[in-house]
Amino acid sequence: MVDARRHPRTAVAVETVLRALGTHGHPAVVRDLSSGGFMAETDQQFIPGETARLQLPEIGYVSARVIWSTGGKVGGAFDQPLKSGPLARLISIGTCEPAAC
Fold first, then answer.
1. Taking residues 41-61, what's their average pLDDT?
2. Cβ distance 57 to 69 under 8 Å?
């Protein structure tokens, strides 16, 4: 299977809040992150195609389109790419070895 992502992902463990528009936020842990998207673990079910808001330390709330959601995980593409400076700071505080994430 070929990885079609445009932005390289970094394994992280960042506690956050994730919510679909019009709903309350739910705890989530971002497990990988790039300037273009994320994968997070959460108990909340999301519907592919819906808009979600993700609260990221160092960055604030960002809007994303849900690409997939299954088995307690959700993947999304940010509406606007994250800026490199805040992304680098977030990655520096949340980076972990993939086996430990």
1. 92
2. no
